[in-house]
TrEMBL record:
Keywords: Acetoin catabolism. Gene3D superfamilies: Histone deacetylase domain (3.40.800.20). Pfam families: Hist_deacetyl (PF00850). The lineage of its organism: Bacteria, Bacillati, Actinomycetota, Actinomycetes, Streptosporangiales. GO terms for molecular function: histone deacetylase activity. GO terms for biological process: acetoin catabolic process; epigenetic regulation of gene expression. This is Acetoin utilization protein AcuC. It comes from Sinosporangium album. Pathway: Ketone degradation; acetoin degradation. The keyword Membrane does not apply. Residues 22-312 form the Histone deacetylase domain. InterPro entries: AcuC, HDACs, His_deacetylse_dom, His_deacetylse_dom_sf, Ureohydrolase_dom_sf. The keyword Nucleotide-binding does not apply. Belongs to the histone deacetylase family.
Length: 387
């Protein structure tokens, strides 16, 4: 078991709701917490509530006039297209400020617990809203809760914070907020920006002293290629950077069933990545680990299983992949969505990969992605870009 592990949750976190038909439906987090409860995963953690982030806390990364604009939209429910709130990806709705500030507050609660030593690991599955910019909403994200948490850690005296983002979309908002601050290392593994929103995240985006790291993976990349790229980039950089705290974003929209993207990972591949990040938190950051959710739009088959695995991994008591999903949870999922839910906690895969240090193939698209990233940033960290 890990030491003290907090899971931050309040039923009001489901109020972050862009309405019927929007991909980011709050049922995904509701089903996750229900599955974690039914499997006994929450028995090994401290379940704690949260308060909304204050204006001063949000202003650690967001412009004051933007916060006021979101409040105005929240009160009226009317769009503000200048601020990215309106028809489209991030619709305006009454209560949007309160719902968004609560998610930021939940991730701040996790950060406080870890920084003060009250918890070794802390998880907010409702968080990970990594696209929000200082002065505008973007990509389903209104306030950037990982950004707020990182900025708060810096304000408390943290000198090195690492952020690893495994969402299929580039973690653009967090990168933008810290790309010129050498105290923050951001690493994002995502589908190539030539085929997917937000169109950023090329390896040449390196920030201050190589502290912005981007691994842009080809369409169709599956477990083996993704894990090869992850291991070729993330562990060496975290070991060299030696963060005081590791913050991770676990968008599970890299799954083959996700309707908005084009990678081909399985639940089993994602679960493997969670385990490696857990291990790296202990190896490189003294065990201080703050984990959030993120994207993920296959609401029944993927998100609840992926993030239940994440919570269980953080708790130090992983769920055996072949474990059946509880009958009561399946009934609840069907009642809520009308869908037939998965029967087990696995996709039946055994993720394997060939380590990049054994050599690379210039004709392979994944290897070309790896080499592009390592050449762009490894020398800036005193690391050899080639195996």
């Amino acid at each position: 078991m890990s030491e003290s592990v907090w899971v931050v949750w309040d039923d009001a976190l489901t109020s972050y709701d862009f309405g019927p038909g929007h991909p980011m439906a709050p049922i995904r987090v509701e089903l996750t917490m229900a599955l974690a409860r039914e499997l006994g995963v929450l028995d090994g953690v401290e379940l704690t509530g949260c308060a909304a982030a204050t204006d001063d806390e949000l202003a650690l990364v967001h412009h004051r006039d933007y916060i006021e604009a979101v409040k105005a939209v929240s009160a009226r429910g009317e769009p503000d297209l200048r601020r990215g709130l309106g028809p489209g990806d991030t619709p305006a709705f009454r209560g949007v400020h309160e719902a968004s500030a609560l998610i930021a507050g939940a991730t701040l609660t996790a950060a406080r617990a870890v920084w003060t030593g009250r918890a070794e690991h802390a998880v907010n599955i409702a968080g990970g809203l990594h696209h929000a910019m200082p002065g505008a909403a973007s990509g389903f994200c209104v306030y950037n809760d990982p950004g707020v948490a990182i900025a708060w850690l810096l304000s408390q005296g943290a000198e090195r914070v690492a952020y690893v983002d495994v969402d299929v979309h580039h973690g653009d908002g967090v990168q933008y907020m810290f790309e010129h601050d050498p105290r923050v290392l951001t690493i994002s593994l995502h589908e190539t920006p030539t085929s997917l929103f937000p169109g950023t995240g090329f390896p040449t985006e390196t920030g201050a002293e190589g502290t912005a790291v981007n691994v842009a993976l080809p369409v169709g990349c599956g477990d083996g290629g993704w894990l090869r790229a992850f291991h070729a980039v993330v562990p060496p950089l975290l070991r060299e950077f030696a963060p005081e705290v590791l913050v991770t974003q676990h968008g599970c929209d890299s799954h083959a069933l996700d309707p908005l993207a084009h990678l081909m990972l399985s639940i089993d591949g994602q679960r493997t990545a969670y385990a490696v990040l857990h291990s790296l938190a202990h190896e490189t950051a003294g065990g201080r680990w703050i984990a959030t959710g993120g994207g993920g739009y296959e609401l029944v088959q993927v998100v609840p299983r992926a993030w239940t695995h994440l919570i269980a991994e953080a708790a130090g008591d992983p769920v055996e992949p072949t474990t059946p999903t509880p009958a009561r949870w399946r009934e609840f999922a069907t009642e809520k969505t009308g869908e037939v839910p998965p029967l087990t906690m696995t996709d039946g895969r055994s993720p394997e990969f060939y380590d990049f240090t054994d050599g690379y193939d210039p004709s392979d698209a994944v290897d070309r992605s790896i080499v592009a990233t390592r050449k762009a940033v490894f020398p800036l960290h005193g690391l050899d870009p080639l195996p």
